[in-house]
Design brief:
CATH topology: Growth Hormone, Chain: A
Distance between the termini: 37 Å
Largest sheet: none
CATH architecture: Up-down Bundle
CATH superfamily: MFS general substrate transporter like domains
CATH class: Mainly Alpha
Number of strands: 0
Order of helices and strands: HHHHHHHHHHHHHHHHH
Structural class: mainly alpha
């Protein structure tokens, strides 16, 4: 097996965590055609995304404590197997209700990847090191959404939308084998926690009362929800409203992901001499400004693809700077129960995203205005949360270093 601090371990963890974005991004080009084939409206088809996010949110509350008790590896492997089985159910679905249910079950298994990947990084590294490693991991992981819509578009045109879910199931089984035989157990035995309900309640209560955790988690949830608003509405805006062909949808999506990777790389470079919270504030400012620009262009009825994609690409650069810092900051105070902290972090993140996705689907009017307005609101909300909570309660070792150490 690989050493825990090996770059290949980071790459394998990124590949495991990438199952989440693959499960959301690969089938985005198929949403309009799935609605037509299953005789479902836009809001019903969008529920296949929101039900997945709701499943991720709920499952993480169970997944994290289980991993704190039994270790990261067995829970992650079991999650991947469940994901694969649910993916087959998605491929065989003949009505929208069955597809929504199977997407929920798919999320129950898929939750193991992101929550335990974050926890494993916290197991291995100090909080400040974890922020930099998570930025590197995010850069690697961003390759998944960069190529996923293009792969999904090709599978859709060549074999139909069920092939997308079969491919996802196959990837999950491969990752189960990789985790089983390639990555050592990262959690120290001394950090194993009890599964008694009283202990779980005590752990979650202690985490939820930590103002530093709340600040980083809410900031993350709002910025991530801005990203998810785009995921929820982009296929309907770009394909249905602006006429982009499904097989070309991935190219526009890749431009957005390039912004995300660029933000990650900037965060990695700045992380060598800047405090994580300074990088975080810069990223949030970028998100708030670009989201407001997109909403202003839509309100002025400038319904052109560049009026959506250019601001969203810049927004994603900010997201790439924000997410690693907030993940590391939220877990910084909880090395002894990183799985539970990561689970509650993920629950809040996915709950916000599911609600925002439902809002975009419910209010969609056929143009880009609703999607752009929601993205702007998320960016401005994240900035307000930073000023009210994060700035007042920074994570340990996240404050600016004295000049003599900088």
């Amino acid at each position: 097996m690989l050493a825990l601090t090996s770059v290949w371990t980071t790459i394998l963890l990124a590949a495991a965590v990438a199952l989440g974005p693959l499960a959301t991004d690969m089938y985005l080009p198929a949403l309009p055609s799935m609605g037509a084939m299953l005789n479902a409206g836009t809001n019903q088809v969008q529920l296949t995304l929101s039900s997945y996010m709701a499943g991720l949110a709920l499952a993480q509350l169970v997944c994290g404590p289980l991993a704190d008790r039994f270790g990261r590896k067995p829970i992650m492997i079991g999650g991947f197997v469940l994901f694969a089985a649910a993916s087959i159910g998605c491929a065989l679905a003949t009505d929208i209700e069955t597809l929504i249910l199977c997407r929920f079950l798919q999320a129950l298994g898929g939750s193991a990847g992101p929550v335990l990947g974050r926890a494993a990084i916290r197991d291995i590294y100090t909080p400040r090191e974890a922020a930099r490693i998570m930025a590197i991991l995010a850069s690697i992981m961003a390759l998944a959404p960069a190529v996923a819509p293009s792969i999904g578009g090709l599978l859709l045109t060549g074999f139909g939308w069920p092939a997308i879910f079969l491919a996802l199931g196959g990837y999950a089984l491969v990752m189960a084998v990789v985790v089983a035989f390639g990555i050592p157990e990262p959690m120290a035995p001394k950090h194993r926690q009890s599964l008694r309900l009283g202990s779980l309640w005590t752990n979650y209560s202690a985490i939820a009362r930590d103002k530093s955790f709340l600040g980083y988690t809410l900031t993350n949830a709002l910025v991530f929800s801005g990203l998810f608003a785009f995921l929820s509405g982009s296929s309907f805006v770009l394909i249905d409203f602006m006429g982009v062909r499904p097989e070309f949808f991935g190219f526009y999506f890749a431009a957005m992901v390039a912004g995300y990777i660029g933000g990650n790389l900037v965060a990695v470079r700045l992380g060598r001499y800047q405090a994580p919270d300074r990088i975080l504030l810069l990223g949030i400012g970028i998100c708030a400004a670009s989201g407001a620009l997109m909403a202003a262009l839509a309100a002025a009825e400038m319904f052109h693809i560049t009026a959506v994609m250019v601001p969203q690409t810049v927004f994603m650069a900010g997201v790439g700077m924000v997410l690693p810092q907030t993940m590391a900051g939220a877990l910084a105070n909880f090395p002894h129960m990183a799985g539970s902290a990561s689970a509650l972090f993920g629950f809040v993140q996915m709950t916000f995203a599911a609600l925002i996705g439902m809002l975009v689907g419910h209010m969609h009017t056929g143009t880009s205005l609703v999607m752009a307005s929601v993205i702007a609101g998320c960016g401005l909300g994240a900035l307000l949360t930073y000023l009210v909570l994060v700035q007042r309660y920074p994570a340990p070792d996240f404050e600016p270093l004295p000049a003599t150490q900088g």
